[in-house]
Structures are given as structure tokens and as C-alpha cells.
Amino acid sequence: MIENLVEITSDQLLGEITKAKVEGYRFVTASCADNGDDTIDVIYHFDRDYGMKNFKITVKKGEEVPSISKVIFSAVLVENEMKELFGLNITGIVIDYGGHMLLSEEELGSPFLRQQITIEQRGGKQ
Fold first, then answer.
1. Model pTM greater than 0.85?
2. Torsion from C-alpha of 115, 90, 38, 59, nearest 10 degrees
3. Which CATH homologous superfamily contains domain 1-126?
4. What are the NADH:ubiquinone oxidoreductase 30kDa subunit domain coordinates in residue numbering (predicted)?
5. Where do the domains of the chain lie?
6. DSSP letter (8 states) at residue 51
């Protein structure tokens, strides 16, 4: 369980991030988790005087998420990482590596997404 977790929508994200910055919170990082269905959780972690504040959004895979890098420039790296490794559709990143910050052309796209494996049954055998 994460303390001081505030669940918001992606429409509220930039407003809440801006408010936290004005209140003196510093951006620590963001984390991302594939829920195993058609949604992804993204949690933005902030600190002020050793007190954490965390904002969580849950989005459908493919849904647009606004970049917070316009407000918090240091989010550029973690947003590119989440975009690349989870396939998170983050729009408006100040510096967008286009999916090639960590992975090369030969590597699988979005390797941290849970993959659904389908077993084809042939002739009664699996």
C-alpha cells in the first residue's frame, strides 16, 4: 500500500502536478504497472521534506496521457522509458526519443507489457 496516494484522472494530471510543484514538492520519479487487463497504472511520486505525495492514474492501453515534462522537465527520461517499455501513449514529451531511448529496432516493442499467449488446439492435443 502506498501512503498519501491520490487517485486522479489523466484530465486532472497537469493541474495536480502544477499544484504540487507550487506547493514545494519535488518530482522523484514515476512508476508504471500493467494490470493484466486492458489498463495500466501510472503513479507519479513527489517529496517535500521527506513527506511523499503520490498521484495515480489508471488508463486504458492506448489511451493518451499528457506529458508532465512541460511542468517538470526532469520527467523526460522516465516518461520516455514508460512509453518505450510499457507502450504508454504519452503525448507532448518535451524531448521524445520516439521509442528508441533504450531499445533498438531489433528488440521487441513494449517488453514490460503482459503478453497474452494463445494456445491453438489441433486434433484434440495441446
1. no
2. 150
3. NADH:ubiquinone oxidoreductase Nqo5 subunit (3.30.460.80)
4. 11-92
5. 1-126
6. E
